[in-house]
Amino acid sequence: MEQILFILFLLTLGYSLKFFEFPQNFSQSLNLFIIYISFPATILLQIPKIRFDSSLIITAVTPYFVLLLSLFFLFLFFKDAPKNTKAALFLLLPLGNTSFFGFPMLEALTGKEALPYGIVYDQFGSFILLAIYGSFIVAFFSGTSLNTKQVIKKIVTFPPAITLVAAFGIGELPTVALPYIELLSKTLVPLAIISVGFTMRLRLDEDRGIFARFMAIKLIVIPMIVFGIFKIFGFGGIAGVSTLLESAMPPMITAGALAINAGFAPKLTASLVGYGIVFAVATLWIFEYLFTLG
Question: Mean pLDDT over all residues of the chain?
Fold first, then answer.
């Protein structure tokens, strides 16, 4: 509980910084440090702890199942939404905040042993979907062509992706390097949550019906379906709860930034990302509690 309260404190701290003389690109600077330093350090520490079994396959495949579920609900409940609103929802419903917000929440709710599964879910699922699916959605709704070479380049040059490959090859780090890598890794949680708080937008001006349906589907319905399937097939333990929580994360901040930059319902997008984070603190705790009950 103390870690959840600490995350709420960091979110509030990050949000409050907007009222002081911080530059508009402050969160972008934090994100760059996270992407190039904090996240790779965490990968180097956590990947050697992974024990390869079928649970990793399920963890890696789940984001694509969430994508299919999201597309089903998008066509079922949002087919009559305005074009720009629909474009934003196509980005935000399938893509969850599985790293910047996901890793701190996983650690707070289930402990550090959940992080390797979170990394697999994020890197083999969310990141690839953001690069390929996200680029396709922006191109499709903007009426532009998809540049395949740029998508491939984005994937192979992404620092955490490079570190992930390196971590599988290196294995356990030398003992002398561990304290320094751990120190860098510890910057991930505070910097990521402060960055998330700084980018939050909580004002909701319009589209309240779409907002409510989206939140219910993203934070409750889709995770409940994943939860039910995991229980039916007996996918439990730390792998099961970690994968479930990653599937229940709120909308991805980067996907929101893509939507806003493309002009896809920017006010609604900002509200979905901001409120999604606030609501998810409660819904994630509930799903973790339900999963561990049985």
Answer: 88
> What is the H or E stretch that residue 89 is in?
helix 83-92
- In whole angstroms, how far apart are CA 117 and each of 10, 187, 245, 251? 24, 20, 10, 19
55 part of a folded domain: no
Number of domains in the chain: 1
The CA-based angle 272-194-8, given to 5 degrees, is 75
Q: Per the structure block, which two tokens stand in for 131? A: 């690069």
From 188, 243, 189, select the one nearest 55 (Cα to Cα).
Answer: 243
CATH of the domain at 168: 1.20.1530
Spatial distance between the Cα atoms of 281 and 8, rounded to a whole number of angstroms? 8
pLDDT band at 75 (very low <50, low <70, confident <90, very high): very high
Per the domain annotation, does 16 fall within a domain? no
Element (H, E) at 273: helix 266-293
* Within-domain flag for 35: yes
CB 96 within 8 A of CB 252: yes
DSSP code, position 51: -
Query: What's the pLDDT score for residue 206?
Result: 65
Q: Which tokens is 156 given?
A: 């192979």
Per the structure, the complete domain to which residue 243 belongs is given by 2-10+26-49+61-198+206-293
